[in-house]
Amino acid sequence: MANPVYVVDGARTPFLKARGEPGPFAAADLAVAAARPVLARLPFAPSEIDEVIVGCVIPAADEANIARIIALRLGCGKHVPAYTVQRNCASGLQALASAAERIALGQAHLVLAGGTEAMSRAPIQWNHAMSGWLAQMMRAKSLSGRAQALVRFKLSYLQPVYALLLGLTDPLVKLNMGQTAEILAQRFGISREEQDAYALQSHQRLAAAFDDGSLAGEVEPLYDTRGNVALEDNGLRRDSDMQQLAKLKPVFDRKYGVVTSGNSSQVTDGAAMLMLASEEAVKRHNLPVMGELKGHAWAGVDPSQMGLGPVHAVARLLAARKIQMNDLKHLELNEAFAAQVLACQAAWASGDYARDELGLDAPLGSMDPARLNPQGGAIACGHPVGASGARIVLHMLHALRRAGGGMGVATLCIGGGQGGAMLVEAAA
Fold this sequence. Notes:
By secondary structure, this protein is of the alpha+beta class. It is 37% helix and 19% strand.
C-alpha cells in the first residue's frame, strides 16, 4: 500500500445467538453500540471522520445503506459520506479493505469501518404465488372482481419463504453451506470425532479468554431497552463435552453426514467496528496505534467447496508479501464449520493440493494449532455474517499485542466460493 494504514481503536458487541425469534437489536443498533465507545475514547469529534464503511449482508428494509444510518446516529453529521458493502461472510473484512485502500491512496485520513448483522431478523417473505394473488386482489376494482380473485386463493400460498435459508444456499450449485462442509469432510477424510473435538476446543478456548480477561478490551457491554445487559457471547457452551456433542444428529446429510449443529457456527446477531487512520492523522491527533493493516487478498474457488477459499486467499497474500506460514504469529480462520477449518489445514499441508490447486512447488504447511484461533472462534462465539471479518481482525490485533507483537493473518471462507485474507502487524 502506498501510505501506511493503522488501526487505532475498535470494539465489538457480545454476539447473541438467534433463539428462533427476532432478537432485541436491529443491525444498525448493534453497530452503533460497538462504535459509540470507540468514538468516546478518541480525541476528535465524529464529524472529523472522512467516511464510514460497513459490511452487512441482510439489512432490514428500513436500513437501506445501513452505513449511512449508522454514521448519522453516531453524530458524524450530514457531510460525512457512508456506504455499505456486501461480500457475504467477508463483508466486514471487505469494509476494512475498502477503508484501507482509501487511506493508502491518500483519499482519506480517518475511516470508521466494520460490519454488523442481525441474522435473527432475517425476513420471512411471501412466496411468488401469494405475491401474485395479492397483486390480483389489488388490481381488482369491483367487488365481483375481488370475489373472483378470492375464490382462487389456495392454502399453499401461505407457505413462507425464509430469506436466511435462501441466503445460505448457493443458487448455482444448489447446495447450502452445511452441505459444502460435508463435501470437504469427505474429500479430506475428516471424521465426526475430529470435528467434535475441534468444536469443543473452540468453546473451551473462548471460555478461558473471557475468564482470564483477554477479551475485556475488545467486547463492550450491550444493553437492551428492558435493562438487560450482555457481557459475553451467549452462544458459548461452557458445559459442552464430547458426550453431548456425539448425541447431536447430522443436520445437512441426515443419513451419512458428519456436520452437526454442535460443530458448526451459530446463527448470530452482532457487530464489530474499527477506526482506521493514516500516519498523518495519527500524528495530528496523537492517536494510540493497535497495529497496521499490511495488505489483503481475495480468491475464488468452486462454490461447492467454498470452505477452501482461505487456502487460496492466504497463499496469494503470503506470496505477494514474500513471507511464509511459519512467519505468522497468529492465524484467525473464521470457524464456519469445524470440517472447513480442518480441511483448510489439510490443504495447506498437502503437497498434491499445493501442486494441483495452488500451482506451488511445495505446500505452505498447516498452521501450528496453538496459533490457530487460540481464543476460540465462530463455533463458540457465533458468526454474524456481516460482522465476522471485522471481528477476527480486531481480535487478532488485541491478541498480537498481548503476545508482544508480530504478524498475523485473518481469513474467511465466503459463500459463493471465495476466500479473503488480511495481513496485520502489531507492535509490542
